[in-house]
Sequence to fold (319 residues):
Amino acid sequence: MDAQEAKLPELAPRTSVLVGRAQLAQFLAQSAFRPTEPLPYSGGDAVACELSREAVHWALLALRESKRSTGPDAAEAPSPASHTLETLWSEAERESLERAAGAPGEAERLHADLLSKSFVDFAELDAGEQAAAAKRLHAFADRLLEPLARPQHAQERTWVARVQLVFVLLGALILLVILGKPLKERYDLTRDLAPTASWKASSLYRECWCDSPAQSCDNCPNFFFHTENEDRPNVVFDLHSVQALSAVVVENRRDCCGERGLPLLVQVSADEKNWKTVATRKEEFTTWRANFPTEHARWVKLLVPNHNMLHLASVRLLP
Fold:
C-alpha cells in the first residue's frame, strides 16, 4: 500500500454496505450489458440500464452517508429508506455529478435517464437506444463509485497483504519443520563426542571389527563391532573426561539381524562403577535417537541385559 492509499479514510460500516450494494448491482449490470456467453433472451441492455440505475441510487446514498458520518449532525441523519433517487440526486454535490457524467451537460441527460424512465421505458426503447443508454448509465455509475471504492479497495489490499504474510510465515514454518530434522542432524554431527572417544566391546566376533576409536572401516561396512553370543553383551565409550551428555543416536547393523540386541540400554557413569540407565529401546529399529535430561558422565555403555549378540553400525554421543 502506497503513501496515498495510507491516507485514505476507512469507510464507515454503513457506507461500506451501501458501496457493496452498488458494486453488486454494477456487476450484474455488466453481466447483462456485456455477457460472457449469449443470453437466452433479448433485452439484456434494458435490464443493464435498470441495474445501473440501482447502482447509482446506492452510490449516491453512500456518498450522502459518508458526508454525514463525519459531520456534526451525523447522529441526526434520517433513515436511508426515506430517500428517493430524485432526493439523493438533488442533495448530491454538483461537482461530483458533473465529474461522474464525464462531459459538460451530460449530467442533465443522465438525470432524464435516471429519473424520467423506469425499467418499462428502457424495455420499450429500440435496440440501439437501449445499448447507448446502458453504456451511459454503466459508465456514470462506475465513475460515481470510484472515489468510494478506492478506500475499500485499499482496505481489501491491506487484508490480502496480511493474509499473504500469514501464508508466507506458515510456509516458512512448514519449511523449517521439513528441513529442521536434517539440519539438526547435520548440526549434531559437529557436536558429536564419539569421534574423540575410545570404545571397547565386551567381546569381538572373529568375522570382523574396526579398531577403536574408528566406527567405519573397509572390512566391516555394516557394523563397527560384533560381540560373541554371550551374557550381557555391551560396548563402552570412554570420553576421557566428565562431559555433559543429553542424547545418544544409534544406527543398527545395516545388512540384517536388526532384531538382535534388544532390549538395548543406554547407561552412563562418572566412575565406571556406578551406572545409571538413561534410555531403553525395546522395539526393533534402524536408527534410534535417545534423548534424556542432561547427565555428566565420562563413560557411556550400550548394553543388552540378556544372552545375545550386539552389533551396531554407528553411535553418536551428543551433549
